[in-house]
Amino acid sequence: MMDDKTIMLEIKNLHANVGEKPILKGLTLSLGAGEIHAIMGPNGAGKSTLGYVLSGRPGYEVTEGSVTFNGQDLLDLEPHERAAAGLFLGFQYPVEIPGVSNVQFLREALNAQRKNRGEAPLSGAEFLKVAREQAGALGMDMDMLKRPVNVGFSGGEKKRNEMVQMGIIDPALAILDETDSGLDIDALRIVGDGINRIMRKPDKAVLLITHYQRLLDYVKPDFVHVLADGRITRTGGAELALELERDGYKELAA
Amino acid sequence: MNLATPTRHDEAWRYSDIAAVEAAWPLPAPESIIVPAGAQFARTINQDSGAIHQLDIAIGKGAAAAVHILNVGGSYGRVELNVTLHEGADFKLGAVQIGGGMQTLEIVTTVTHLEPKATSSQIVRSVLAGTATGTYLGKVAVARDAQLTDSVQSVKAMLLDRSATANAKPELEIYADDVKCAHGCAIGELDPMGLFYLQARSIAPADAKKLMLQAFVAGVFEGAADEEVLTDAALKKLGDLV
To answer: Global pTM?
Structure first.
């Protein structure tokens, strides 16, 4: 067993509704520092809901259970406070925001984080240096960073942009909701490398939400969980993902 | 000239704060501006004190006029433009009105294309909170001789509260048969998913709203001599609202 100090995210008996409909039905899960966990499961099992509940999306209501993040009651925080505390949600469908440039948006985001950590805001030039490094590492053109957030980006570019954002924000905990969907093979490798580079650290943790084994070829999980009908029904090591890929979820649900 | 105080039955004053209009009545004669053939004219109106501005602008052959308006101040603010375009003349309007509380803000334009080949473009953005009312009434009239007129109206309003009101009435009256008159009109709310996305990147709700509203009004003051002053004043007012 891990001792308490190393537990980063602790979800206990989490129940949540979207509108009137119960989606999460008693989900329990612990993420230790330095660990990468993958959550797999059939459509409609509640995978994306988990990501939204943890990040505080309005309309996703927790009815029972608790979530602590580095010992703090996560559910008590507003969405921006959760993010400032170090939680990052990689969106399955990154949102387009016409008129707001990536650079402006990310500088505000990073400076909000720095403020929370008691650090001075970065100047425009200092920020651009960080942004250029992260964009370069993910093979993204600086010109794209100057464009409005996600507007006119292809599916793959949007996902890559999520990773650039993650690199700039440098969170303690990343919940990545189907970051692998919509990526071609080369982009998948680049994104996988990005996750390892940014998040594979002793004081960080990752929750990868995915349908497929293929991302896990690049980002090797320490634990794989099956989420079905709103709770974790099975937990194993990396080999569980291969088993799922071979046998499907049906076998496991039984 | 009709000197009677307007009432709600007058189309151009239908959404006005009639009590404020009565208090201001009778108004001085509209400011008359004549732009000579081939000349350039530019004017900025920063309505920050609850005033009624009325301008008559006649734009001569091949001349150009640009008007930028920031309509934000006082309990009742109105800017009324009556523009006449001669052959090949050009008129540009970029206007932003931002209102909260119980403010009533209006921009009322009549743009008459009298002669051929004149162009006009009007961009109006309104941001309204509380129980504020923001109105744009914009009539484009094209005379029988004014062939090859090219006119555009882009009107958008953003409501920050369900209790706020936006009125938008782009209106066309066309007597020529070879013209291009485009008009677009939309009234909406801030995209909740966009707001959540910004908050999920640690931007506080008020800052997230401000960022999106800043984008909404961006570009309207482009080309204005005091673009920066207008933009800063607009951002300050947006900051007060969110």
So the answer is: 0.89
